[in-house]
Amino acid sequence: QVQLVESGGGLVQAGGSLRLSCAASGRTFNMYAMGWFRQAPGKEREFVARISWRSTAYYADSVKGRFTISRDNAKNTMYLQMNSLKPEDTAVYYCAAAWGDRTEYDYWGQGTQVTVSS
Fold it and tell me: pLDDT tens across 62-75, in order?
């Protein structure tokens, strides 16, 4: 079992920055691919970014060049640095874990709210 806890959300003005963290329990964090997803009110959950267990990063086109995903295996923590935030980035952000190279995520956090004001 892996438990995931997100933190770092909040209210920020457009153009500002936030850094989200996802702390994971367990001793095999380094074997999981980790992802960030988001869900805005009235919309479906969408992919934001993924970092493989090899630390290869992938991004949705909507955040490419503005967001950076990273991980610190020694701290069992994943991060999402969000710069140049836009009102359309407003959503609940969730982190998730997938074993190895699997694309299906096995564990999800409870989410953290990010609100970007115009």
Answer: 999 999 999 999 99
The DSSP code sequence of 32-97 is EEEEEEEE-TTS--EEEEEE-TT--EEE-TTTTTTEEEEEEGGGTEEEEEE-S--GGG-EEEEEEE
Give the other-Cβ count within 10 Å of 13's Cβ.
10
pLDDT of residue 79: 98
The whole-number mean pLDDT for each consecutive block of 10 residues of the chain, a chain of 118 residues, reads 95 98 92 97 97 96 98 96 98 97 94 97
Sequence letter at residue 38: R
Nearest partner of 26 among 51, 7, 6, 1, judged by Cα: 1
Q: Is the CB of residue 8 less than 8 Å from the CB of residue 20?
A: yes
- Measured CA to CA, the distance from residue 73 to residue 90 in angstroms comes to 28
Closest-CA residue to 73 (of 42, 17, 31): 31
- Tokens representing 57 are 């990063």
